[in-house]
Amino acid sequence: MEIIKEVLKKYKNIALVGASKDLTKTSSVVMKYLQDYGFKVYPVNPSMKGESILGEKVFGNIKEIDGPIEIVDVFRPSNEAAEIAKDAIKVKAKVLWLQLDIRNEEAKKIVETNDIIYIENKCTKIEYEKYFN
């Protein structure tokens, strides 16, 4: 998908929703990978707000992030995606990216109505490797 390549080339500020301090979890592996390739990653996890993951301060919600957010990368269950989509609009994100096995038609409608790119069931790390490594 050409749009994915374009997104990963153009946008470098990512809110990673569902971040974990367990460095063996997929979200942490992806976060570290993205950091290694020049992305600024803001970890989001309400239960760890104020703590640190891979050297970055953890936010409770994407609306609390004090920097630009271009991609909202979601590692949460599909049924949470619509609420995250609404927050993505509020922070003027360019892309809502749902990780592998995450899909939500309502979230898709919400962001596409607001001119935000919607990507589902894809891993940012796998896609980056496919196009740039």
Strand and helix layout:
Layout: H1 2-10, E1 13-17, H2 26-36, E2 40-44, E3 52-53, E4 56-57, E5 71-74, H3 81-90, E6 95-98, H4 105-113, E7 117-119, H5 124-132
List key phrases describing it.
133 residues, alpha/beta, Rossmann fold, five-stranded parallel sheet, two-stranded antiparallel ribbon, 36% helix
Description of the molecule:
Strand 3 and strand 4 (56-57) form a beta hairpin. Helix content is 36%, strand content 19%. The protein is built from five helices and seven strands. With 133 residues, the protein is of the alpha/beta class. Strands 2-1-5-6-7 form a five-stranded parallel β-sheet, sandwiched between helices. The chain has a two-stranded antiparallel sheet with strand order 3-4. The mean pLDDT is 97.
How many domains comprise the coordinates? 1
State the low-pLDDT regions, or none.
none
The CATH H-level homologous superfamily = NAD(P)-binding Rossmann-like Domain
Named CATH architecture: 3-Layer(aba) Sandwich
For the biggest sheet, the summary is: 5 strands, parallel
Gap from first CA to last CA: 16 Å
**Main CATH class:** Alpha Beta
